[in-house]
Amino acid sequence: QSRLTQPPSVSGAPGQRVTISCTGTSSNIGAGYDVHWYQQLPGAAPKLLIYDNNNRPSGVPDRFSGSKSGTSASLAITGLQVEDEANYYCHSFDTSLRGSGIFGGGTKLTVL
Amino acid sequence: ELQLVQSGAELKKPGESLKISCKVSGYTLPHYWIAWVRQMPGKGLELMGIIYPGDSDTRYSPSFEGQVTISVDKSISTAYVQWSSLKASDSAIYYCGRMYGSAKGGIDYWGQGTLVSVSA
């Protein structure tokens, strides 16, 4: 059972704004560890979307943004596009996992 | 160009052993942690463990401790994950990825994935 909890699904119409939450515990996000977000398109490997809570790698549109507060983090997507339809995962370090990290369960974004 | 290129798909029988690989290029392997990630059919990402090639410091997620062995051969810039006795439940896509910064960092480059199918 994942210690990072994400909603199984979210949806939005093209042009709208959606947010995906990632709720952690005192052993991961709440302990101050950074949160990273990945986008996985169907049939493809994951791609880093946001690193260290709110930073975008080169090439990622500024429609994608991240934030963190307390034991939770969020990914926001503005100006939703059809090609944003994908699975999204959060990831953080966890002190209870023997020096390793953990992924959230993933959220399926459907663009209506 | 920085790349992680994984070995090809495998079809194995229960009880068989397997070692899959992840060859990196375009950067110095010993300087970055490598992560192995499992994705079972239709399911989410699971972090199996991570290894620091510089000193082979290896950390396994509890669910994978004792189930797999992660290793690295710096001389050929390649990381591995191996199983001594496969089970049907090991059927999945396995990804390797480079972690930037530290063991707490994100995975900035990913391999293309290796499909492992285990069936009698």
What is the topology?
The complex is a heterodimer of chains A (112) and B (120).
Chain A: E1 9-12, E2 18-23, E3 35-40, E4 47-50, E5 64-69, E6 72-77, E7 86-93, E8 101-103, E9 107-111
Chain B: E1 3-6, E2 10-12, E3 18-25, E4 33-39, E5 45-52, E6 57-60, E7 69-73, E8 78-83, E9 92-99, E10 107-110, E11 114-118
Parallel strand pairs in B: 2-11
Antiparallel strand pairs in B: 1-3, 3-8, 4-5, 4-9, 5-6, 7-8, 9-10, 9-11
Key structural traits:
A: 112 residues; mainly beta; 3-stranded antiparallel sheet; B: 120 residues; 7-stranded mixed sheet; 4-stranded antiparallel sheet
What's the overall average pLDDT of chain B, rounded?
A: 95
- Our estimate of the beta-strand percent of chain A is 35-45%
Number of helices of chain B: 0
Total helical segments of chain A: 0
Oligomeric composition of the shown chains: heterodimer
Distance between the termini of chain B: 40 Å
**Share of helix among residues of chain A?**
under 10%
Q: H/E order of the elements of chain B?
A: EEEEEEEEEEE
Helicity range of chain B: under 10%
Number of β-strand runs of chain A:
9
Structure, explained:
The complex is a heterodimer of chains A (112) and B (120). In chain A, 0% of the residues lie in helices and 43% in strands. Chain A is globular and about 40 Å long. In chain A, strands 1, 3, 4, 7, 8 and 9 form a six-stranded mixed beta sheet that branches. The mean pLDDT of chain A is 95. The termini of chain A are far apart. Chain B is 0% helix and 52% strand. In chain B, the strands form two sheets. In chain B, strands 2, 4, 5, 6, 9, 10 and 11 form a seven-stranded mixed beta sheet that branches. In chain B, strands 1-3-8-7 form a four-stranded antiparallel beta sheet, with no helix packed on it. In chain B, a hairpin with a 5-residue loop joins strand 4 and strand 5. Chain B is globular and about 40 Å long. At the A-B interface, strand 3, strand 7 and strand 8 of A face strand 5 and strand 10 of B.
